[in-house]
Amino acid sequence: MIRFEGVSRRYGEQAAVDRVTLEVPRGSICVLLGESGSGKSTLMRMVNRLVEPSAGRVLVDGRDVAGADPEELRRGIGYVIQSVGLFPHWRVADNIATVPRLLGWEPARIAARVETLLELVGLEATLFRDRFPHELSGGQAQRVGLARALAADPPLLLMDEPFSALDPGTRRGLQVALREIHAETGKTILFVTHDVEEALALADRLAVLDQGQLVAQGRPAALLEGAAQGPVRRIFGEESLAFHRLATLPARSLARVGDADGLPMLPADATLKQALMLMLSENSARLALPAEAGFGGGTLHWTDLVTAR
Amino acid sequence: MRALLANLLLFGAAMVAAPYLGPLWHALFPEVSRPVWDSPGWFSLLGEHLMLSLGATLIAAILGLGAAILATRPAGRALRPLLDAVFSLAQAVPPVAAIALSLPLLGFGAAPTLLALVLYAALPVMRSAVGGLDAVPAPVLDAARGTGMGSARILAQVELPLALPVIQAGLRVALVLAIATTAVGAVAGARCLGTPIVTGLANGNPSWVLQGAIFTAWLALIADQALRLGLGRHSG
Amino acid sequence: MPSQPAALAARLPLTGTAPPPREAMAVATLSVLAVLAPLVLGVLSLAPNRLLSPRAAAMPQTAGVIICLGLFLGFCLGTALLARRAAWLGWAELAAALALCALLAGIGVAAGEVLRDASPAARATPAAGFWMAMLLLALAAGCCAAGRGGTPRNFMVAVVLGFGLLWAAGLLGNLSVAREASARGAEIRAAAIQHLGLSGSALLLALAVSLPLSLLALRHRKLEAALMGVANGFQVVPSIALFGLLMGPLGALVSWAPGLRDWGVGGIGPAPAVLGIAVYLLLPLCSAFLAGLRVVPPALIDAARGQGLTEAGILRRLRIPLGLGVMLGGLRVAAVQAIGLATLAALIGGGGLGTLVFQGIGQLATDLILLGVLPMVALSLLADGGCAALQAALERGP
């Protein structure tokens, strides 16, 4: 879907992005993880040409974006940013309708689309349609921002630290909502964050940037497996690395066949991290895993968890 | 709104009545032989006063807004220091000095006043518009660009509407300034509500001065009231 | 380790990588226009006598004139080039001032040449091109100063010094403004002193009213609303109308109590002028005082109270020292406004430099208008610069 080919961006002497080559497969959530100033936002903003690369090229659907009309390109790519960027003088419905209006949709179609989208992002249409941005909470505003990005049904979504300014509870709620929307719509999402837990909660694929360079990429589990060294180790936090690794592995990967009677029950798609948390909170060294298609159910043992590599 | 209408009516009535209030002016200024201002008539003076100040404010608004828009575009950044320099220079030269200086070039009449008016009224509009456009939050602009709006559309639909309250405040200052400067223009021969003041001062006729001063001040207060009303409605 | 030539190139100022300051473009354009203005509009004009209107005169091609104009050209170019580096903006300002002085010297010398074979009644005056060039150079200096984040004091000091030198050297004596000035020297000095007196007393009066009122308004919301309402309301009334309105009541007061006349009170004269000016200074002064007194965040005031400081102590130790900069800013605005407003005082017999301006308007005599306006502008620039220097000294702090 997106291909970065040897992309660099220099500001004077400084290279904000340094020869990055990265592929984002169609339908995946790819998270760009890095500390502030690592160049992750700059890299993302080259996709919709808010930043032009100094070298290399960016391909969307096999076509170089440098050849596209910037405004037309942007209308076909959803864009969500941290401070939401809702137009303060427009109502929620008008904000969501921005791109459909630019594309010249009919009013009836726009109105229907706004209803659908508000429902999709979990906001009651009748309640929120006519509000102004300043009448929304941070989480609600970000949901509207997401709806606006999805308005014209773009196949690709760029999200620049969209949840960073929210409190932890709201943030988790939105992460869950985003995964659901992703499962429902199958969009390709490029997501920028500096938050390791958020990255692991969302990512199908993870790309780690440090000082403008791509230092690691791949599936989260593979990326964290043993090989974590240098900047990756620092970014994930030395002492919590093992903990993060547990978050990338499914609980069923360590399941044993056994008697699960009376044990605390994990959800089917739980990770090992969730399993550890449940063990700690339930004071139980064993957990039960429910049976599911292609998996017969079983139990999870504390000893397996702590010796897992 | 009602207060403004009442004020306007009262103003009009006073203008109609002023020439017939001979006894009152006689009583106030017993030593003046011709205390009633009669020609040109008050309404013709008012008309010329409004034409000058409103016309100048309109030109100034277009100029000031244009300069501000230009200076806030990436390509017009070089204009910024120039506008600042003009602004601080203009503060050292009061409008009456500008009128006096352009008098030898433009001659007696409305022309020097109009020049000074446009110059001085454009500055507050420009100042406020630059401030208002600068204050549009960067994330909003980023989002607007990111959704694929063109720069002309961003200006018309996002930047100008968001800067409007500040620009309006600048316009108010400009109009009040224009009405005051027009009155001073009487010194250079512009016909306006300041004419009775200047003529009265030159001929030692305090009655004319008082009448002109009352109407000039009143007009300025009405204009301010009207603009406040417009402002309040927008921000409310 | 970088190679020798590369390292050398990095150290050379002209090939350095620092981009020119954003003022560079504006300054260059203004300097070029300043060179063009005299060419297009002419710099010198000649009138057969004091009353007839002047006609453009050709510049005599003597060595002195050519040297002066060459210097003018060079300094204009220098201004444009020096402004290309942020660190040299101060020098660019100086170059603009020197260009101005060179042009002034040029027309001074040229006036002498032209008048030599003319009748004794003939007068030489600077033409539109000279004034335009002066305005453009002042703006260029203003741009440079904006780039350095200050007032164009290099420019002003250099212009004043240069002007003084040229005057002392007798180079300007043949210009008609100079002739008018030396004929009316005493009159101008008196008017300037009167002008300062008018604006100074108005400023003192406004200070005496607004300081205590601001202190009171700090604690009484209602008083603050009333104070700002009144100050704002007065701002709307045109000054010429206010002077007119004050004449009546003050005149009546004097006819009721003639003894007051000995104190200078009356419908006509300095009293209504000072009162009228002072009224307009209330807004800048009060709003700056209130803003200055509120510079200290409430949390800090709370902490001070918690440590047992009295209200007077908080005022003396916190509010005033920390808010002084803001308050001085208000004083600066008020001082400049006072000097401008005092011009109108001449209309109601208050005297000051306005007298010369209005006389000039009456006779359509450019020289007289200039002799009123130029010292007035100089005074207001001086007041502005003085206050700015005070502010800067304060910010640097003890």
TrEMBL record, chain B:
It is found in: Cell membrane. CDD domains: TM_PBP2. This is ABC transporter permease. It is a multi-pass membrane protein. Keywords: Membrane, Transmembrane, Transmembrane helix, Transport. Belongs to the binding-protein-dependent transport system permease family. The chain crosses the membrane at residues 50-70, 105-123, 169-188, 208-227. It comes from Teichococcus vastitatis. It comes from the Bacteria. The keyword Membrane applies. InterPro entries: ABC_transp_perm/SBD (IPR051204), MetI-like (IPR000515), MetI-like_sf (IPR035906). Residues 46-227 form the ABC transmembrane type-1 domain. Its main location: membrane.
TrEMBL record, chain C:
It is a multi-pass membrane protein. Keywords: Membrane, Transmembrane, Transmembrane helix, Transport. InterPro entries: ABC_transp_perm/SBD, MetI-like, MetI-like_sf. The keyword Oxidoreductase does not apply. Its main location: membrane. Pfam families: BPD_transp_1 (PF00528). It comes from the Bacteria. It is found in: Cell membrane. Residues 192-387 form the ABC transmembrane type-1 domain. The chain crosses the membrane at residues 24-47, 59-82, 94-115, 127-147, 154-172, 192-218, 230-257, 277-301, 322-348, 368-394. Belongs to the binding-protein-dependent transport system permease family. This is ABC transporter permease subunit. It comes from Teichococcus vastitatis. The lineage of its organism: Bacteria, Pseudomonadati, Pseudomonadota, Alphaproteobacteria, Acetobacterales.
